[in-house]
Amino acid sequence: MLANVDIINAKVPGYQDLQRILVNQAGIIEQIMSMNTAWEKVTPQNLQVLDVAGDWISLGGVDLQINGGLGLAFPELTSENSSMLPNISSFLWEAGVDGYLPTLVTTSIENIQRSLAILANYTPSSQTSAQILGVHLEGPFLNYYKRGAHPAEYLLPLTIDQVKRVLGDYAHFVKLITLAPELDTTGKVIPYLRSLGITVSLGHSQAIASEAQQAFTQGATMITHAFNAMPPLHHREPGLLGAAMTDPRVFCGFIADGQHLDPIILKILLRASENLFIVSDALAPLGLPDGIYPWDTRQIEIINGTARLQDGTLTGTTLPLLVGVQNLVKWGICDVETAISLATDAPRQAINLPTFAPNQPAHLLRWNWDEIGKELTWKRLQHFPVL
Questions:
Q1: How confident is the model at residue 229 (pLDDT cuts 50, 70, 90)?
Q2: In the chain, where the domains are located
Q3: pLDDT tens column, 305-316
Q4: Domain 60-350: which topology?
Q5: How many whole angstroms separate alpha carbon 31 and alpha carbon 54?
Q6: I want to staple 190 with a disulfide (CB 3.0 to 4.6 A). Which of 173, 174, 218, 381 is the partner?
Q7: Active-site residues: which are they?
Q8: Band of pLDDT at residue 126, cut at 50, 70 and 90
Q9: Alpha-carbon distance 260 to 269, whole Å?
Q10: Is 56 within 8 Å of 366 (Cβ atoms)?
Q11: What's the rounded Cα separation, in Å, for the pair 162 and 156?
Q12: Residue 43 has pLDDT above 80, yes or no
């Protein structure tokens, strides 16, 4: 039978002091309590004690913006290549990710509908597999002048009728949508999306601060890859970014690869806003070596994990989510606890999922900070030995 496991001397993001974590035989977190607190429960049978000696324990990561992996772009899903989904989900699990939102960038409605249908009907074949939590639609309701690498021919006006066309029968499976709020002249689209239970994120936008503030009042609660595909901060027009960073209702996603944001900007961002989370923004070549790969009808070149079109336009990364955590610590941007939270608890909070607490599945990561070598490493705690 599986063991009950008592993880002791653990640091846990959001908790003070060293903690003990009791995981039951079903692999569920039963209790989290300070090592300084007397153990009040009857000690369960078949108890295995795991002393992590001051290492950090967290849930696995959640990636709210990931465009594909192992050579497959999610907007290009078909019945023929959908067999790749279990491989991608297993790869992400091994990369420390518990759950993710496959992200569909701007493409034809036909492609969006086909991908939504396949993703909505996907069932993981293994418990050691990252879960699909829904879909992130990044487009097609984006500002032409901030479209970045999104193909202009598929951009659509932001109206309720167009939103219905794109969502089709899969509104229930779309968890998050990125849009440019200035495109909505009626002020009705964001409330409509919220009524469907879809989280609205602002991005690929030229919105000024007042337009962003209006969108937040209407129900938008997030911005997509902060600083990228939006006007820069300006001392007389703080824009979308300034409005988001100063609004306690709003989460800001960001990419921590060192290319999308300079480390100095990362320091500013973390000092200015408390509601932040890391995304990978990883593209289809995630898990593959550097090189030249197809990207819709174009090509991208991957160099050191950074993806660019042939004209130099930055399109994303091929770095796994938890590399961003390690980067933040390595660059001295924040402490270990904060960095871990930005990829584990914070994205869960952003889409209203439970964070590290009792009654959650014990999909746990163990993080070790080497003070001498200044290196942060992690591994999964596989559940759990048989006694």
A1: very high
A2: 4-54+357-381, 60-350
A3: 998 988 888 888
A4: TIM Barrel (3.20.20)
A5: 18
A6: 218
A7: 281
A8: confident
A9: 13
A10: yes
A11: 7
A12: no
